[in-house]
């Protein structure tokens, strides 16, 4: 029985801790004003642009050529290739204790650009969906067509149509962070949508309408929309507002939140915070004649600092309450992430967390400490 509990907990943590490569918002304000300063996508993440390659090289200890396969494979100007390989191993307590090791990500990326039009596709294996294993062992998490108003610049108007993650909040890479996991953009929540986005040094806005994936059984069985706007009050201060509406066959859910970013150049500290109020309206059904309206809250504060040229330290506090009306459901955690950028392609990461439920009154405390290896093609 104990072995079964350990296996169940391990599988659950793997699903929670697995992640795909996203942007590092820790570099915004401290290194650049926008995500498009380093990434091709207006939302950040995945493929780097020329400036992103320069940052990858300059923030690593040993440097090395930052291009795809170290620039050994010549590519035409209209084609960008890349990919991410990740694996992790370490200790978990959920509350059963175990040592675990698992692959996290194997993905390849392609971006083909023809003037203002570009096509982005990524693909790789993923954990199969129960009852639909053959169709979900290998997939394309993102594939979309994009029009860019200024194809040779990193700002302006963007329009995307296809499969991608709706843009919300801080868009941090670590999916177990509460605002990612419970804030509407959890792992594998990518879905089909249409996004209109505008990015400039002083201001950016993202509006996305999305539908339930008609091909596979998705994590998000919802239709809806999301919006995020952010203004940079100065080169070191930014504030944002966000909202999301989701409707499934059984409920409706509203997310409303605020984002704040503050960079202190002297001590080289970046403060990032996100808070969301979540209102869920559960429909009445024959099996649930009462329905319900749980109201929740999710928030986090993260402080980041570069330690020298190639170490990045994050320390975060998270809080999540799925229903204010029920005592001791709330979760609180302390997160620590230490990134070591060895080369422009190779990163070692320590992810650690200590978590309490109802400050010890809602269940046993949990924890994990995972060493992660990340190689960017």
List keywords for this structure.
377 residues, mainly beta, Porin, 4 helices, 49% strand, globular, disordered N terminus
Précis, in short:
The chain contains four helices and 17 strands. The protein has 377 residues and is mainly beta.
Chain-wise SSE layout:
Blueprint lengths: L1 H16 L32 H9 L20 E15 L3 E18 L2 E9 L7 H4 L1 E2 L3 E6 L7 E9 L13 H4 L9 E9 L3 E9 L11 E10 L4 E11 L3 E14 L4 E14 L12 E13 L3 E11 L9 E11 L4 E12 L8 E11 L1
Antiparallel strand pairs: 1-2, 1-17, 2-3, 3-4, 3-5, 5-6, 6-7, 7-8, 8-9, 9-10, 10-11, 11-12, 12-13, 13-14, 14-15, 15-16, 16-17
Structural class: mainly beta
How is the largest sheet built, in terms of strand order? 1-2-3-5-6-7-8-9-10-11-12-13-14-15-16-17
Oligomeric form: single chain
Number of strands: 17
Number of helices: 4
* Main sheet properties: 16 strands, antiparallel, barrel
CATH topology: Porin
Helix content: under 10%
H/E element string? HHEEEHEEEHEEEEEEEEEEE
CATH homologous superfamily classification: Porin
Estimate the mean pLDDT confidence. Answer: 88
Number of domains: 1
**CATH class, please?**
Mainly Beta
CATH second-level architecture: Beta Barrel
Radius of gyration: 20 Å
Which term fits the overall shape?
Answer: globular
């Amino acid at each position: 029985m104990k072995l079964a509990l350990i296996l169940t907990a391990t599988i659950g943590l793997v699903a929670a801790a697995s992640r795909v490569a996203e942007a590092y918002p820790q570099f915004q304000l401290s290194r650049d004003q926008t995500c498009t300063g380093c990434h091709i996508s207006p939302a950040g993440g995945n493929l780097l642009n020329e400036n992103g390659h320069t940052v990858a090289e300059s923030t690593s200890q040993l440097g090395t050529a930052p291009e795809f396969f170290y620039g050994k494979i010549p590519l035409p100007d209209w084609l960008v290739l890349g990919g991410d390989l990740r694996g992790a191993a370490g200790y978990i307590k959920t509350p059963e204790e175990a040592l675990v090791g698992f692959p996290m990500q194997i993905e390849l990326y392609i971006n083909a650009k023809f003037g203002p039009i570009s096509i982005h596709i990524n693909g790789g294996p993923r954990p199969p969906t129960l009852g639909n294993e053959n169709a979900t062992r290998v997939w394309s998490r993102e594939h979309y067509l994009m029009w860019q108003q200024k194809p040779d610049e990193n700002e302006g108007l963007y329009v995307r149509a296809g499969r991608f993650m709706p843009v919300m909040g801080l868009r941090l890479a670590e999916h177990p962070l509460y605002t990612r996991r419970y804030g509407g953009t959890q792992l594998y929540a990518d879905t089909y949508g249409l996004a209109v986005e505008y990015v400039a040094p002083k201001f950016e806005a993202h509006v996305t309408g999305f539908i339930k994936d008609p091909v596979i059984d998705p994590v998000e069985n919802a239709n809806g929309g999301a919006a995020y706007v952010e203004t940079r009050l100065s080169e070191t201060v930014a504030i944002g507002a966000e909202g999301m509406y989701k409707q499934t066959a059984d409920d409706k859910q509203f997310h409303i939140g605020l984002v704040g970013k503050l960079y202190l150049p002297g001590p080289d500290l970046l403060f990032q915070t996100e808070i969301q109020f979540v209102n869920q309206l559960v429909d009445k059904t024959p099996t649930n004649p009462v329905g319900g309206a749980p109201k929740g809250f999710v928030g986090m504060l993260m402080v980041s600092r570069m330690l020298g040229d190639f170490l990045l330290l994050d320390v975060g506090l998270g809080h999540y309450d799925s229903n204010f009306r029920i005592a001791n459901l709330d979760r609180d955690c302390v997160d620590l992430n230490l990134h070591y950028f060895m080369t422009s392609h190779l990163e070692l990461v320590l992810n650690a967390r200590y978590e309490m439920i109802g400050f010890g009154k809602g269940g046993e405390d949990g924890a994990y400490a995972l060493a992660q290896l990340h190689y960017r093609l």
